[in-house]
Amino acid sequence: MSLAIKIFFLLSLVTFIVPLNSSCVSPYHKKTSLSSNEHSTYDITYSENEIKVESPDMATSKSHFYYKNGEYYGSQDSTLFFSVVRDTVINITDEYGHKYRIEIEKMNNGQYKTSTYFINEVQGGIYFLISYVYDSKYHISKITKSEFVDYQ
């Protein structure tokens, strides 16, 4: 993977980063870890109105998603990221002018999938960055990164 694509991947994660401090303490709080044969792990913490996804192996890989009106968003009032309500495609541009596509779809097996892509208008390509597979209760069962490593 080229350095430019790695940089764009890291920048896409930055758009969803929120400080780790959370004042939400709830009996609903649950934590799950997904690992792979690549010696990497994703820790997923579920609380009443928030999902935190972080990789202890990569300090910059921390994302928070907030529940609002039956769906999860990248920040309090930001971009839709997880939905079991609708299939949709969202095109966004970050503060640096980089363009991304988020695709949310229901799969045939009753699971849902959110995939993020980087759109390179200069070279005319669309590059897969990361996808999340989850159930109707938003419990993430699989994460696939651009290096094609599955976390289950």
Describe this structure in words.
Helix content is 8%, strand content 47%. It has 152 residues and is mainly beta. β1 and β2 form a beta hairpin. The longest helix is centred in the first third of the chain and has 12 residues, at 3-14. The radius of gyration is 15 Å and the shape is globular. The relative contact order is 0.18. The model is unreliable at 1-27 (pLDDT under 50).
List the helices and strands and how they pair.
Elements: H1 3-14, E1 30-35, E2 41-47, E3 50-54, E4 62-68, E5 71-73, E6 80-82, E7 88-93, E8 99-106, E9 112-120, E10 125-134, E11 140-145, E12 150-151
Antiparallel strand pairs: 1-2, 2-3, 3-4, 4-5, 5-6, 7-8, 8-9, 9-10, 10-11, 11-12
Concise structural overview:
This protein has one helix and twelve strands; from the N terminus they run αββββββββββββ. With 152 residues, the protein is mostly beta strands.
What is the strand tally? 12
Structural class: mainly beta
The run of helices and strands is HEEEEEEEEEEEE
The major beta sheet can be summarized as: 6 strands, antiparallel
- Helical fraction equals under 10%
Using brief descriptors, characterize the structure shown:
12 strands, 47% strand, six-stranded antiparallel β-sheet, mainly beta, 152 residues, disordered N terminus, globular
